[in-house]
């Protein structure tokens, strides 16, 4: 059977369990058959899960039975856990503040795929100015754009308001107007700001770009 394979079985189970009673019945499987369609040449239907995987023959699939069905197909199933205290996290911020929002989900044996949404819109599909998306292990570049009649200016780079300098991961180039961050990890996600100062160390302005690593 070919399903739209989600990275964790627990999420798929929750989507199929429409009434949230902790088990899946034949009616719920039938309703979702239009969403999780098999390949055209496949004789299987989503409803075939129940007669084949209902080990205790109670006409329901609990999570253990559902997981066992996938264990027969895939050797590595990601189990996702999130502490209840972290399920809802409220952050207060003021206009102009830099805010970092973390998703502390743990997956075994591998890290789950994390997606970010705002007002039920997938952020990867939103074109936001100064928002950069990069993959884990990749390379990201952030440019600083400014105009000044003063030829003697200094550019300093900050991540989430903390001063950063060149190191094994970060390269500062083009007269300090560009940084490149290599071997990206999720911890590199944040707001990167270049702040321009004159020779008297007076702030002249800043440019901010947000980097999201997935």
UniProtKB/TrEMBL annotation:
Domain of life: Eukaryota
Keywords assigned: Calcium, Disulfide bond, Glycoprotein, Immunoglobulin domain, Signal
Keyword Repressor: no
Keyword check for Manganese: no
Domain Ig-like, chain residue ranges per copy: 137-210
InterPro entries assigned: EF-hand-dom_pair (IPR011992), EF_Hand_1_Ca_BS (IPR018247), Ig-like_dom (IPR007110), Ig-like_dom_sf (IPR036179), Ig-like_fold (IPR013783), Ig_I-set (IPR013098), Ig_sub (IPR003599), Ig_sub2 (IPR003598)
SUPFAM superfamilies from the UniProt entry: EF-hand, Immunoglobulin
Alphabetized SMART domains for the sequence: IG, IGc2
PANTHER family, per database record: CARCINOEMBRYONIC ANTIGEN-RELATED CELL ADHESION MOLECULE 8 (PTHR44337), IMMUNOGLOBULIN SUBTYPE DOMAIN-CONTAINING PROTEIN (PTHR44337:SF8)
Protein name in UniProt: Follistatin-related protein 5-like protein
């Amino acid at each position: 059977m070919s399903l739209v394979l989600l990275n964790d079985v627990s999420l798929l189970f929750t989507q199929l369990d429409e009434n949230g009673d902790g088990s899946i019945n034949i009616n719920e499987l039938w309703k979702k058959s239009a969403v999780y369609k098999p390949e055209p040449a496949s004789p299987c239907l989503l409803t075939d899960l129940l007669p084949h995987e209902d080990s205790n023959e109670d006409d329901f699939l609990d999570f253990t039975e559902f997981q066992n069905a996938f264990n027969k197909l895939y050797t590595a199933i990601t189990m996702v856990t999130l502490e209840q205290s972290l399920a809802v996290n409220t952050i207060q911020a003021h206009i102009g503040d830099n805010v970092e929002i973390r998703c502390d989900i743990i997956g075994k044996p591998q890290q789950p795929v994390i997606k970010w949404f705002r007002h039920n819109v997938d952020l990867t599909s939103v074109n936001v100015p100064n928002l950069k998306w990069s993959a884990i292990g990749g390379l990201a570049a952030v440019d600083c754009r400014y105009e000044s009649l003063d030829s003697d200016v200094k550019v300093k780079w900050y991540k989430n308001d903390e001063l950063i300098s060149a190191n094994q991961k970060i390269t500062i180039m083009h007269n300090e107007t560009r940084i490149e961050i290599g071997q990206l990890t999720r911890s590199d996600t944040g707001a990167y700001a270049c702040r321009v100062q004159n020779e008297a160390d007076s702030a002249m302005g800043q440019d901010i770009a947000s980097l999201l690593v997935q």
